Every structure is written in C-alpha cells, then in structure tokens.
Amino acid sequence: MAINLEQFAQEFRPECIQVCKVYDWTTNVVAITRDIPFTFPTGSLAGLTNLTADCSLTLLECTEEGRRDIECMVGDETVELQAVTLTKTISVTLEVTGTNEAGAQVTVTSNPVTITITEEVILCAPEGTTVCCTSTSDTFNGCRVISFTPPAAGVDTITATIFARVCQNIVVTFEVILEVFAKFCQPRPQIICEDECPVDVFPPQCPTIFPLNHE
C-alpha cells in the first residue's frame, strides 16, 4: 500500500527516544558430560533397592569474564569483532527412586551441585556494550543420567555420570538516543462488557383467526 506522505507528515513528527539497542544476538549450546558426586540427606538412601535415577538442571548465572578484539573473515570482508569469555553456573540435582524395606516406592532428591563452565563466543561487542545471556526454552534444555553407582550401605553419596545441555540467548546491548518519526500513543477506549437481558421474541401470530375482529 502506498504511503500518503502528506498525511504521514501531518500525523508524525521527529521525536527523540532512548532505547536499548541490540548490537548482536546469537544463541549458543553448552553440552557437558561429567562424573558428579551427589550428596543426599543423611540416611535417606538407607535400605533402598532397585534404584533408578534422573537429573534436572537450572542455569543460575552467566557472567562476562573479559573480551578481546579479534579480526574475522565474514564472507569476503575482514571485520573487527570481539571474543567474549562467558562463565556459566549451572545447578544440577539428582533424583533417585527406589523400593524401601516396607516395599513402598520412595523418591529422594540430592542437594544441588553447582557446575561452572567457561567458553568463548565471537560477538559484535565493542567497548561499552553489555553482554548478557539467559536460558532459552526449557523444552530444549535437559539433563540425562548416563550411569550411576548404587551407594554402599551407610553412604549418602551417589556418583553419577550425567549429560547436561543448556541453550542460551546471548545479547549485546547499549543504551542509545534515536530520532524517529512518531507520535505519542493514546490509551484505547475502555471496553464495556455488561450483561444485558435478552429481548423477548414472540412466536408469529395467526391474525386470520385471532384476535377476533369485532367490527
């Protein structure tokens, strides 16, 4: 649809706004396989047999440790970018289900274990910008127990080999002031939604026979 420039100029005018500009945005997957000793509450594993195990994870924190300039070939062009070192802290818990001495199914959860992972990501992150990362959809992130060793009698620790995968949004931002053609927004009219009594609709009459014509 063609833009009516005269109408556009009447409705919009130059405005300065301060916004958080995105300098770069990418996603990155961290996948690790580690042997981790999980500690359980004292005595919670006593007498459990036929054990199965599952694990869960949470991305607690992602912080920048530093950045350095780097030249990269992007297509046929040499571009100055930044290699940013990020440190992520992940919390992992192990959930063990087994049969106790009374024959009942019991599930116990370990104390959380924190894992720190450091990686380097190439970004457009010039000096002054802020780099932050957050976990993406939980359906992609996951934790799987590859193997574990049942605890010996009287021991409250299980060592498990786990596979963990976390996908993160990594965004580089900086506060900027922009001039744009815009107009102030106004609130929309309030929506009034009231219950109203329906109007009675009478069945059709038979005027030939009723009411009687008394003339």
Task: Provide an overview of this structure.
This protein is mainly β and 215 residues long. The protein has one domain (14-179). Helix content is 3%, strand content 61%. The mean pLDDT is 87.
List keywords for this structure.
four-stranded antiparallel β-sheet; 215 residues; mainly beta
Total DSSP E strands = 8
What share of the residues lie within helices?
Answer: under 10%
Largest sheet: 4 strands, antiparallel
> What is the first-to-last residue Cα distance?
68 Å
Ordered list of secondary-structure elements with their pairings:
Elements: H1 5-11, E1 13-39, E2 49-74, E3 77-99, E4 105-109, E5 113-123, E6 130-135, E7 142-148, E8 157-182
